[in-house]
DNA sequence: CTTGCAAAACTAATATCATTAGTTTATATT
DNA sequence: AATATAAACTAATGATATTAGTTTTGCAAG
């Protein structure tokens, strides 16, 4: 029984590969153990069961997502930053559909690592959005809007929800353009129901 | 062994209740059988296993969603219709989070019932969006955009992804207003990257 | 009213999971 | 070199879905 030399991070990386290649439903401890050449119970030396693994994957996914979008927006601001961030975000969800899915896990009460990873992304989006000159509350609403757009687009794209034969990149670019134009045109009376 | 008198629709309804009350991960054949007072294998007389049940739930969910949004938009058009549809859509996801989740299942090749149910919703949204005077392709992109917004918002709302203490209904109204304003302001040059 | 049949329920069995308990052994530390 | 810690293991349990085969119900045809 030669030691396999596993550690937590190795497990998370291997699980992320499984998730991206075969989908999250294929991420079982049995499959992960097989991939790593050990027996399932051995994994418990490094992770807190399947639930713990999923949380670690979520944190890892958020960190990776942050890396990608922060690098993409470096040195940019305004519209260019929003577009760059959006492209990077969707690029990530395309490259890592399984890992991205884990990041949507609702954080348990007091899960500081997960909250921190999510918070960094939130701060970055706020910073990008704040270039449009809304008030503080307006910024927060606009950030929620952008996140909704990006998450919604990626989900529908990934599960083939867009049946129509129409270029998806064009849809994304138009969607972001439209949203930015809306922010610009509405100014501060965004609440009014017309 | 008195006959329970089950049928497919009863199973789907009961499964939807489980999904909405306890989440989709709680929808197991074991739990469903217990709720209905039979043994798990008995369910196979009415459904094609768990996978078949999920497909039926997806179709049922899409039909319910269509009912809700088509009723909400009846007699309305333009902005009012978009807002009414959005409110109805989000109202449905709030009232039936579990059932809504099943509707996101990627349709298998040749799953005509699921495709039909999705198609009706798509047609309705296209009809509402077409009031804004875009060309045919523009309409389709705009529909994708609205669906992204609504799905993204509902997902993030449901799993608590909006950490900030800010009224969610305000966010939704502003988001829709912003999107509509964007469509109005951009007109047909939505593709341009600046 | 009886007979028979199809369908709906059942029991029993299998395979796959996750998880826990307890054991062995490799590696690092003293 | 001795020991302790931790990483791997085996064995066992309980939940799940699913299949095969059996019983029985309820209806329908004679």
TrEMBL record, chains A, B:
It comes from the Bacteria. Residues 28-47 bind DNA. InterPro entries: Homeodomain-like_sf, HTH_TetR, MT1864/Rv1816-like_C, Tet_transcr_reg_TetR-rel_C_sf. Keywords: DNA-binding, Transcription, Transcription regulation. Residues 5-65 form the HTH tetR-type domain. SUPFAM superfamilies: Homeodomain-like (SSF46689), Tetracyclin repressor-like, C-terminal domain (SSF48498). This is AcrR family transcriptional regulator. It comes from Paenibacillus silagei.
